[in-house]
Structure formats: C-alpha cells, structure tokens
Design goal:
By secondary structure, the chain is α+β, with helices and mostly antiparallel strands. The protein has 3 domains: 80 residues, Alpha-Beta Plaits, CATH 3.30.70.2700; 229 residues, FAD/NAD(P)-binding domain; 192 residues, no CATH class. Helix content is 29%, strand content 25%. The chain starts with 11 loop residues before the first strand and ends in an 11-residue tail after the last helix. Bound molecules: flavin-adenine dinucleotide. The site of flavin-adenine dinucleotide has 45 residues, from helix 4, strand 6, strand 17 and helix 15. Flavin-adenine dinucleotide binds next to helix 4, strand 6, strand 17 and helix 15.
C-alpha cells in the first residue's frame, strides 16, 4: 500500500503503538523494532509497518528535544498476551484505524456538477469520478498556470481581480499558503486523501509528520498533476466560469436543482456539490435569494503577528545545537484569558500576504515555501466572535459576519493609506496603547503603516489580543516585545456562514440534490478537512439517484 498499513485480515491484526520516543539522531528502523518488541512480536513476523504520526516534544524550551511517534504494525493475530492486554488498557496500543476508499458504489453516469476547485471541490470531483459519475468542475478563477499572473498584477498595483486572487482560482484559498496539513480530522478518508496528494507530488512524509506542510512552490507543481489525474478519470474543467444561480423544480423530496446557471450558460445536472470557500460572498447572496438555508456561525477575527524566525526557534528549542535538524520552529498557542485567543495558521520561515478578494478592503494571511526559507515567522492571533458578539457590533442576519468582515477590512484599508499597505504596531506598543515609531520591518509585500491597531480593532478583539500577548510572552520570550509586529487585519481565518445540511445525506435543507461542503458551507477549516468533506459530500451525492424528480421550474 502507498501509505496505509494493510488492514487486519484472516490471521492478521493491525495495531497502533503510541508514545514511542525517537531521539533526533535515531533512525526509523530502531523505532519500528521497538514497536514490534512492545507487542511481543519478532521483527521478522511483522507483515507491514508504517509511521502514523511523528511530532516534536520541545517542552521545557527544548531541554529534552525528541520526537514522539505512533507506529502502525500488522502482525500475526493470536491470543492476546497479558502484556498486550495491559498496553491496550493503558491506551499505548489500540487497533489501527481502517482506511476507507474515496470511491463508493454510485449511480453510473450520474451528472455531478461541482462548484469550486479548492481542496473541497477537487476531492469532490475525484471521489465522484472514481465512483463512476460524469463530473463537471466549475471554477470562477483560472487554472494555476494563469492565476499566478493576475496575483502578480495585483501586487504590482492593479485592482484585485474578483475571480483570480489569493482566495479564488485553481487550488482555492490555500494555493498561496504554507500548505500545512496539521488540521487532521482523524477521518477514515484521511489516508486516501494523503495518498492522492503524494501521488500528485507532495512529500511522502505528510502521511505522518505532525508538522507536515507542502509549501506554495510544491502546491503549484502539484495542481496540474492532480488536474491530469482528474481529466484521465473524465472530469471536465470549466475554468473562468462563475456560477450565478440555479434552476430548480419542486418535487416530493423538496426542491431539486435541474441546472446550474453560469456565466457560460446553464449546465444540466443530477446533483450539485457546492465547495465555494469561505469568501464566496457574492455566491452566498444568490444562494440566499434561491432559498438555500443559511445561518451565521462563529468565526475568528484578529491580526497577524510577525517575528524574526530566530526569536521563535530560540524560544521553542533553546540553544540545543541539534535543533538544526528540526528546521525553523513553529508554535500553536492558546490564551485562556477572560476573552480567549489563539494563534492560528503559523507560517515558519514565511511571509504575510494580502488575502484580498474585493477592492478597497484589506485582509492578511500567511504563506511559506516548502523550505521555510524566509527569516520571518508569522501567525494569526485571533479570537472567536459568535453571532451574538457580531450582533453587538451592529450586524444581524445570516450574513452578519460578512458585514462585519467588510466593515473591518475597509477600516484597515483606509488606515493603511488605501494602498493595501497594512496598519501595524509593535506588540510592546500595543500593550502600552501607543503608535509605533521608527522603521516597521515586515515580510508583507505592500509594507506596513504605523497605526493604532489597538484602537482600530473592536474592543473584544483588542482585549483578547492584549490578554494573549502577556501569556504568549511566557511561552516564547520576546513574543510580546519590540520584535513582535502586529499587522492587520485578519478576518478570513474561517468562514462566517453555515449552510445547514442533513447529517447523514449531506443534502441542503429543503433540497433533494444540493450538497454544500467544505469551508464555505461551514463544515471544514483547512486543506485536509475541506478535501475530506468535499469527498464525502460527492460520495453522498452520487450514491443517490436524483433523475426522476419532476415539477415546475422556478
Ligand atoms: C493565505 C492562506 C493560507 C492558508 N494556509 C493554510 C494552511 O497552511 N493549511 C490549511 O490547512 N489551510 C490553510 N488555509 C485555509 C485553506 O486554504 C482552506 O481551509 C481551504 O482552501 C478550504 O477549501 P474549500 O475547498 O472549502 O474552499 P476554497 O479553497 O476557498 O475554494 C473555493 C473555490 O470556489 C471558487 N468559487 C467560489 N464561488 C464560486 C462561484 N460562484 N463560481 C465558481 N467558483 C466559485 C473559488 O474561486 C475557490 O477557488 C489557508 C488559507 C489562506 C487564504
């Protein structure tokens, strides 16, 4: 198997052994050997083995740096020795999860239309095609080979292109990212998704590295290969085509979508999977008009914080000379102050980017290349605003979050000088409530403008960041000092809208063949979870036959 450990069969058992220590300079073979010994099995009797997870233990600021591993082994089945029973009771050994295939038994030739070529849409198309459906994938942006030019034009002063930007276009929102795959979801489809990513050119260690990331450069090389695989399976790509509405009929089973309306005409279909991403504002508008149920959901608001990478690596790993093996350090911090906050989407050796899809609004995010080679480290520092908090800020209704995002993005755009330069403030000045002076150095391409970021933020967000800075300083010395630069605003870490769907069938409320999925539907947050959710929605879509519905078209 490419990545999954072979599963339990007649006479064989698949076990996951957790908590195995690996020294930084120790080979994998030694760990596998210890795993077999832990089960009381001779190494020669192991039928298959693989690392399921490997993470760094850097507690105590790197005083005892080592890896902690999980290993899956398939070994001869037999009566469980008392030692194995003890290990199972203590949680150190458990049955290895059985991976699932992307394909299901579907309706052959069912016309499946997928909107969005982000991870959700690409894996929806793949799962649909592998299940025998006739798949069309509609993406408003261009193929990756042409998307890049439009992104570059924006960075050279052109207005943001509403269809091709850091959020829209082939590969979706994460195409200019760190390509982190930490947002694991412990789903039985995870192995199948990882296998496909590796097949498209991702490094093989994404299967187990707890800090696995792909990097923008590699992601860009993978997308054409993934497209090639999909085309071989018969998927038709419609790039540069925006979905603008649906033609529906009423049926006994609720409303049925007959056709997707697009800027290139109507596409008739049997099932429609929507993987439109967390910034599909105009798309949510027409979906609401078409009667698709939607509700406001909690989402995150905050800033990016940037430091010299060396400050972070020293703070996490200390002065241990072996730390070079590990590369630039990352972090994942939580503050449990009165208003909680957390770090998110940390990009070691990366840079801050303008995550902008509309003219006149500013939003930051982060990306890195595969080698994490820049001298900067950045992460989002955000708090969660629930619908009540958003209402208290004057925005109501299912799309209230979009209203607040837009208001804040415009406020920061104006405060930055209207050029996509970002308002910025040193962390130490944020804590003192004063404007920063002197040069504000940042990786952000449009540059930083000294501003009272603390005053530009809603009070609740300011309070959350204030509380977090003090706590994070204790975890990483210097975090909240002069070398920490807050750059804003970060409003698109997650989507503010949910499209309610049936838990089992994935159907949108009131519709028989409409399947909202991924981050734009409120069911995913990150590349892996969006890919898995898209695949699951497509499997649900093709597993049912929607072609017999009749009724008046609307
Ligand atoms: C800069 C940045 C860095 C990130 N870094 C990471 C990371 O390191 N790790 C991680 O796990 N996640 C990361 N994320 C988040 C991740 O990208 C998203 O969670 C993920 O892409 C969501 O996938 P999706 O398929 O649901 O939606 P998206 O990837 O947003 O894709 C939606 C697609 O739908 C298209 N679309 C929308 N409306 C229409 C329409 N009407 N007609 C046709 N097409 C339409 C859009 O053009 C877009 O391509 C990052 C995001 C950004 C912006």
């Amino acid at each position: 198997m490419a990545n999954g450990v072979e599963q339990q069969g007649r006479g064989w058992a698949a076990w996951r052994i957790s908590g195995l220590r690996q020294e930084l300079d120790e080979g994998d073979g030694d760990v596998l050997l210890r795993a077999a010994r832990a089960l009381g099995v001779e190494p020669g009797a192991v039928r298959s083995q693989r690392f399921a997870r490997r993470s760094i233990d850097a507690r105590g600021r790197g005083r005892d740096l080592h890896f902690v591993c999980q290993v899956d082994l398939v070994v001869p089945d037999g009566p469980r020795a008392p030692r194995l029973r003890r290990l199972i009771r203590s949680g150190k050994v458990s049955p290895a999860p059985a991976p699932e295939q992307l394909a299901v038994e579907g309706t052959p030739g069912a016309r499946l239309v997928v909107v969005g070529a982000g991870p959700g849409g690409l894996f929806a198309a793949l799962a649909g095609a592998l299940s025998g459906a006739d798949v069309t994938l509609v993406e408003r942006g261009e193929a990756i080979e042409r998307r890049g030019g439009k992104v570059v034009a924006f960075h050279r002063g052109a207005d943001p292109d509403p269809d091709n930007n850091l959020l829209f276009g082939d590969g979706g929102a994460g195409t200019y990212s760190d390509g982190k795959l930490y947002t694991r979801v412990s789903d039985s489809l995870e192995t199948a998704v990882i296998d496909e990513l590796v097949r498209a050119g991702a490094p093989a260690d994404i299967a187990f590295d707890a800090r696995a990331h792909i990097g923008t450069d590699v992601l860009h090389r993978m997308l054409p290969r993934l497209r090639g695989r999909l085309e071989e399976l018969g998927v038709r790509f419609s790039y540069g085509v925006r979905a603008t509405g649906v033609a529906t009929v009423d049926g006994a089973d609720g409303r049925t979508v007959r056709a997707l309306l697009t800027t290139a005409g109507a596409i008739e279909l049997d099932a429609l999977v929507l993987c439109i991403g967390h910034s599909a504002r105009d798309t949510w508008d027409w979906l609401a008009e078409a009667g698709v149920a939607m509700e406001a959901k909690p989402f995150q608001v905050g800033v990016r914080i940037e430091h010299p990478q060396e400050l972070i690596t020293r703070g996490r790993y200390g002065a241990d000379p072996r730390r070079d093996v590990l590369g630039p350090a990352s972090y994942n911090l939580q503050s449990r102050a009165d208003v909680p906050a957390h770090s998110f989407c940390m990009c070691p050796g990366g840079r801050i980017v303008a995550s902008v899809s509309e003219s006149g609004g500013l939003c930051t995010n982060g990306m890195s290349n595969s080698r994490h080679s820049s001298r900067w480290a950045n992460a989002a520092l955000v708090t969660t605003l629930d619908p009540a908090a958003v209402e208290a800020l004057g925005h109501r209704g299912p799309l209230a979050g979009v209203g607040l995002q837009r208001e804040l993005e415009r406020r920061f755009f104006d405060a930055g000088g209207g050029t996509y330069a970002a308002p910025a403030q040193r962390a130490s000045d944020f804590l003192q409530g004063r404007r920063s002076t002197g040069e504000l150095r940042t990786s952000y391409g449009f540059g930083a403008t000294a501003a009272r970021v603390d005053s530009l933020l809603p009070e609740r967000v300011r309070e959350a960041i204030f509380g977090a800075l003090g706590r994070f300083e204790r975890a990483i010395p210097g975090f909240a000092g002069e070398e920490g630069l807050l750059v804003g605003i970060e409003t698109r870490s997650s989507g503010p809208v949910r499209l309610p769907r049936d838990r089992g069938s994935f159907r949108a409320e009131g519709f028989s063949n409409l399947f909202p999925a991924g981050e734009g539907a409120g069911y995913a947050g990150g590349i892996m979870s969006a890919a898995i959710d898209g695949a699951r929605a497509a499997r649900a879509a093709v597993a049912s036959d929607h072609r017999s519905e009749t009724g008046p078209a609307r």
